[in-house]
């Protein structure tokens, strides 16, 4: 992989049972797989499929927000077609979790409901639904959360699950790539740390050092969002104040590459802000690798620098781009969903690029080209929203 030289810009159960033993040759297919939630997730409570079955606090435990709208649902994508024979749903002692259903689907659209169960209130218990005698072909497992006991931790409507496990074996078939049903949400995910950055850095005369790490979406040329952001920052900072930008970018650069090749250089810069953006150039999708690499890179930057890490999700691709197995819009949205997970896990600020573009006003074809690259107006939108994020009151 070739890397361009970084450019520095100055001034610039059928029953409820204990979890049963795993059948010979079977595995927990849901472990660390991507999942989506119909509503917001309680910040930091993301442990639905992390392998932790005995935690009633985040991040080991999963929780929805206190949104009163029901039903809520979770969809776990096993990433491959599988023959599924057991689903275990581990409830939490935190309360609220009441009636749930288990459903499976081979295509992500048509679901078969296998089980309906009401958990006792505020009791850690496992619904271990075993259908070994009649396994189902499935890539997607949906857990519907139908109602609440109320009176539990976090408010009446927070639904808690310690873990969901799905046991079976892959069939060896080709995966179904769907568009994750992720709510676009607000364009900006803010944080208290950014207010501190504004007060003690951007509103003072001290030098501010920024690094951008990413793939082709993080270009170093004039007219692209990193340079546009720098120009906009200079107009709001005190005259003569220096803002330094270093861009590390290459087509198809992934978070694992950045961690291996670029981390030492980035740490040596002692940055105040690091922007991370990956997923724009992916021709195929490996969720486990992307998830692990992105989380590792974010953690390394947080541990080894005093920088605020800001995530920038990839732009949307034109619908239907790519082949059946390498569907660019779905891959980018999967990457964006992994950014959501990392942002929640570490409390990181973020720009949801697709949401920012859709909220901007002009039609999407004025902002994104046929190949899913951002046009000049699209880069202006991203730069403007990043400035808004950095200068939040």
What keywords describe this structure?
11-stranded antiparallel beta sheet, 18 strands, disordered N terminus, 2 domains, Rossmann fold, 24% helix, alpha+beta
Q: What's this, in brief?
A:
The chain has 393 residues and is of the alpha+beta class. The chain has helices spanning 192-202, 225-236, 255-268, 287-304, 328-346, 353-358, 376-390, and strands spanning 7-9, 15-16, 27-28, 35-37, 41-46, 62-64, 72-91, 99-105, 112-118, 126-130, 136-145, 160-170, 188-189, 208-214, 243-249, 273-277, 308-312, 350-351.
Descriptive report:
- α2 links the parallel β14 and β15 (243-249).
- With 393 residues, the protein is an alpha+beta fold.
- The relative contact order is 0.15.
- It contains 7 helices and 18 strands.
- It has 2 domains: 15-170, Galactose-binding domain-like (Jelly Rolls, Sandwich), CATH 2.60.120; 188-390, 3-Layer(aba) Sandwich (Rossmann fold), CATH 3.40.50.
- It has helices at 192-202, 225-236, 255-268, 287-304, 328-346, 353-358, 376-390; strands at residues 7-9, 15-16, 27-28, 35-37, 41-46, 62-64, 72-91, 99-105, 112-118, 126-130, 136-145, 160-170, 188-189, 208-214, 243-249, 273-277, 308-312, 350-351.
- The longest helix is centred in the C-terminal third of the chain and has 19 residues, at 328-346.
- Strands 2, 3, 4, 5, 6, 7, 8, 9, 10, 11 and 12 form an 11-stranded antiparallel sheet that branches.
- Mean pLDDT is 87; it is low at 1-24 and 321-325.
- α2 (225-236) crosses α7 (376-390), α3 packs parallel to α4 and α4 (287-304) runs parallel beside α5.
- It is globular, with a radius of gyration of 22 Å.
